[in-house]
Write a structure and sequence with these properties.
The protein contains eleven helices and seven strands. The strands form two sheets. It has a five-stranded parallel β-sheet, with helices on both faces. Helix 8 links the parallel strand 6 and strand 7. Helix 4 packs across helix 5, helix 7 packs across helix 8 and helix 8 packs parallel to helix 9. The radius of gyration is 39 Å and the shape is elongated. The N and C termini lie far apart (about 125 Å). The relative contact order is 0.10. This is DUF218 domain-containing protein. Keywords: Membrane, Transmembrane, Transmembrane helix.
Length: about 350
């Protein structure tokens, strides 16, 4: 019996591959019909993109192999360099900020603190009428004749006190507490008034060591934040502290706030100036209420005192402390009705200047 020349017994069967293109499959059928070998030729795997680019460069531009190798190494090194930059940026972002390094404190030779507590924001575009109520942003309880002059008296008393002590750092303390006054701080207002007044005749002695603390929202923060600011600028804590404010607030500062910090009474001083005559009675009555609140809440962290702080932060300023005074971390995080009992820098008898 004759066998057909197309019989599958004449040649081995060559399967079709699903991944082959229609042209490739057609070519396989033709190969079978004309009697070519049924063995499928080895498939050629495609080169990677980089290999093809290098091959084209070598064949079309006749670039030497060594130049291609050098170029590849250069690209790899550049890639590693940029990866290193990104890694350093990410690492730096995760490291806690340290504002100063040892030996970089610009006022390290000063040992005493004179703090002037701010009470208002200066809003006038000029400084020719610093003693006028229209030049200051006043709350309703502050709108009394002679009120602006009491602010100037505080500034003058602070400058004079610092002038009498060559080792004193003068800090005007007070944050951006009045929404209607705009983002201007009480501290900067007081410094500007002192500047416009030629530092009351003590410019050479005081100006270079008069700075600001611009985050405090109440009297306790005036004291605590100024102590921390002093540490930022000098590298150590004050030996003596002198507070300048109204005379009717002396008990609040000297007893309640000083006691909350457990600062030695023998090294704490107070310079008080009188309130305006028309405001004295109301001020004394209001002070009694505030002192009662601080007796119940020495650190002002709960209740009405805490609410008052929130209201006095209309621009949502971030408090930077205690990053500049790490020894006070525990004190800053403490909130209780009792006095803080942890370690404080001035507890040591070796803290003398």
């Amino acid at each position: 019996m004759l066998k057909s020349k197309y019989s599958y017994n004449n040649k081995p069967f060559v399967p079709m591959y699903a991944e082959d293109s229609p042209d490739e499959q057609q070519q396989q059928l033709l190969d079978l019909e004309i009697g070519l070998s049924g063995r499928r030729p080895p498939r050629k795997f495609k080169r990677s993109g980089v290999s093809r680019v290098l091959q084209r460069l070598q064949h079309r531009h006749k670039v030497s192999t060594w130049l291609i190798i050098i170029g590849s190494i250069s690209i790899a090194l550049c890639s590693l360099y940029f990866v290193g930059i990104v890694y350093k940026s990410i690492s730096a972002a995760s490291v806690p900020f340290r504002p100063f390094i040892r030996g970089s404190y610009p006022y390290r030779k000063l040992h005493n603190l004179v703090m002037v507590a701010g009470h208002s924001v200066f809003t006038s575009t000029g400084c020719s009428k610093v003693d006028s109520e229209s030049s200051w942003f006043l709350e309703s309880y502050q709108k009394h004749p002679g009120q602006a002059l009491t602010f100037v008296d505080h500034i003058r008393a602070g400058v004079e006190t610092a002038a009498s002590d060559r080792k004193a750092l003068l800090l005007f303390s007070g944050g951006e507490t009045r929404k209607g006054a705009g983002p201007r701080s009480e501290a900067q207002s007081y410094w500007s008034v002192a500047e416009s007044s030629n530092w009351f005749g003590s410019e050479q002695e005081v100006r270079w060591r008069a700075l600001t603390e611009e985050h405090a929202r109440d009297s306790f923060e005036n004291l605590l934040f100024s102590v921390c600011r002093f540490r930022e600028l000098t590298g150590h804590y004050p030996w003596n502290i002198t507070v300048v404010s109204y005379d009717f607030k002396e008990s609040r500062f000297a007893n309640l706030h000083r006691l909350a910090l457990r600062f030695p009474a023998s090294r704490f001083f107070y310079k008080g100036t009188p309130a305006s005559p028309t405001a004295a009675e109301a001020a004394t009555k209001g002070e009694a209420n505030v002192q009662k609140l601080f007796q119940e809440d020495p650190y002002g962290c709960v209740g009405p005192l805490h609410t008052k702080r929130i209201l006095r932060d209309p621009f949502a300023r971030v408090i930077p402390y205690p990053s500049g005074c790490p020894e006070l971390n525990d004190l800053f995080s403490y909130c209780g009705t009792g006095i803080f009992q942890g370690m404080l820098p001035w507890d040591s008898s070796n803290s003398s200047p």
